[in-house]
Design a protein that fits this description.
The chain is of the alpha/beta class. The chain has 13 helices and 15 strands. It folds into three domains: 223 residues, 3-Layer(aba) Sandwich (Aspartate Aminotransferase, domain 2), CATH 3.40.640; 25 residues, no CATH class; 135 residues, Alpha-Beta Complex (Aspartate Aminotransferase, domain 1).
């Protein structure tokens, strides 16, 4: 038998075995992850979680059989599809939403941006009511966050404070869409354009949300997303940074890929056609382009196995978003009788949120204690969360960071002291949502009676 025939036989057997393995994975999923009926008071009702079926497990195992352990075919496939979904020209996968924010801000410090390069001491307008890693990249790049207050009950930036926050050092605006509810993108975009400021949209909680019919993530210069299990789709860990600007894409990719000047994909060489024809810095002429570094970067890529899970999840994303909106609406309607005790959330005008959670603010005048309500919900098996870090300036880690505050942060403090949220994620059934509504009513009545 010829070596060619032997290789063909081996390849054919590998294909057959792969097919057999993947068929068994479908059977395994059915046995390992059976449907569980909801038992009120016994079954937990979490605020978020992974939602998957056999397709995700098949994709994961399929990728593992390639034994290509860095980014590969599934990552390339996901980047193309997610960019199309989000409405951007480019999508770059990273290992978390936090890393996406780090890459996004860091890219704006690139010397290749000329006069628009962010430099240490430049100011970036943001809010203190949110998640730490929206703000941390500003600090890590030796920029100065300028904090303004939020509106309640949209929990987004108070756009009337932006002009007051502006100074001769202001160079960028970095804002998250709070719990999937878009901030006023028209106002913020016009403000940034008027003053020549970069705009980064943190869409980690808001994939698929729209403002004036246009997707979030397409209004700013750069946008980010997270694929942690709590988010709209999951890769376990993972995130993405998006842009439609070719120059920014190069900078984003460099900061993600060790800071190198080369843009070859893993396992590829000489994409530029002149690998040994470069002279940059004071390096010798012809220095290998794969080892020329134009930025102080990191290795923030993810594995192809994670991307494979994302490919399967992405097919479900429209249905996930619709389920989140439907669950939000059921809670909003079911909790109307509790308005004397709680401030219910509101969508930003002209927006269609892709809800991450359902925020509730305990009215101070009601006499309720948030902690008492949360303890009773927890005892019933209903998960709750605070609005992330609340006022970050009240957190120990931020006690001595360089910053500037514009005006009062009264609403930010209100969020810290009185707001919590419950889940709307797709696995929640109508029965679970109705149980949440009833238990919140009972918790409120009990706490109020006490």
């Amino acid at each position: 038998m010829s070596s060619v025939s032997s290789e063909n036989d081996s390849a054919n057997r590998a294909v057959a075995l792969r097919r057999q393995i993947l068929d068994l994975v479908v059977e395994y999923h059915a046995a390992a992850f059976p449907a569980v009926s909801f038992q009120p008071g016994k079954t937990s009702v979490p605020v978020s979680g992974r939602v998957f079926d056999h397709d995700e497990v098949v994709h994961l195992v399929d990728s593992s059989l390639d034994f290509w352990l860095t980014t590969g075919r599934f990552a390339a496939r996901f980047e193309r599809a997610f960019a199309e979904f989000m409405g951007t020209r480019y999508c770059l996968l990273v290992n978390s939403g936090s890393s996406a924010n780090l890459v996004a801000v860091s890219a704006l410090t690139s010397p290749k941006l000329g006069d628009r390069q962010l430099r240490p001491g430049d100011e970036v307008i943001t809010v203190a009511a949110g998640f730490p890693t929206t703000v941390n990249p500003i600090l890590q790049n030796q920029l100065v966050p300028v904090f303004v207050d939020v509106d309640v009950p949209t929990y987004n930036v108070n756009v009337n404070r932006l002009q007051q926050a502006l100074s001769e050092k202001t160079r960028a605006v970095v804002l998250a869409h709070a719990l999937g509810n878009p901030f006023n993108l028209q106002y913020v975009k016009q403000f940034c354009d008027q003053h020549g400021l970069w705009l980064i949209e943190d869409c980690c909680d808001a994939a698929g949300a729209t403002f004036q019919g246009k997707k979030v993530g397409t209004w700013g210069d750069v946008s980010t997303c997270s694929f942690y299990p709590a988010h709209h789709i999951t890769m376990g860990e993972g995130g993405a940074v998006m842009t439609s600007d070719p120059k920014l894409k190069v900078a984003l990719e460099s900061f993600r890929d060790w800071g190198r000047d080369c843009w070859c994909n893993p396992g590829q060489d000489n994409t530029c056609g002149k690998r040994y024809g470069w002279q940059l810095g004071t390096l010798p002429d012809g220095y290998d382009h794969k080892y020329i570094y134009s930025h102080i970067g990191y290795n923030l890529k993810l594995t192809d196995m994670q991307a494979a899970v994302g490919v399967a999840q992405l097919a479900k994303l429209p249905a996930f978003i619709e389920a989140r909106r439907r669950n939000y609406q059921r809670l909003h309607e079911g909790l109307q009788s509790l308005r004397p005790w709680y401030l219910l959330p509101e969508a930003t005008a002209e927006s269609d949120p892709s809800w991450f959670g359902f925020p509730l603010a305990v009215r101070p005048e009601s006499g309720l204690l948030r902690s008492s309500v949360l303890q009773k919900l927890n005892a019933a098996g209903i998960g709750t969360r605070l609005l992330f870090g609340g006022n970050l300036l009240r957190q120990p880690a931020y006690r001595d960071v360089p910053h500037r505050v514009v005006g009062s942060l009264a609403n930010t403090d209100f969020v810290t002291d009185h707001v919590f949220w419950i889940g709307v994620y797709p696995r929640l059934t109508d029965e679970m949502l109705d149980f949440m509504i009833e238990q919140l009513r009972l918790a409120t009545e009990s706490a109020n009676a006490a």
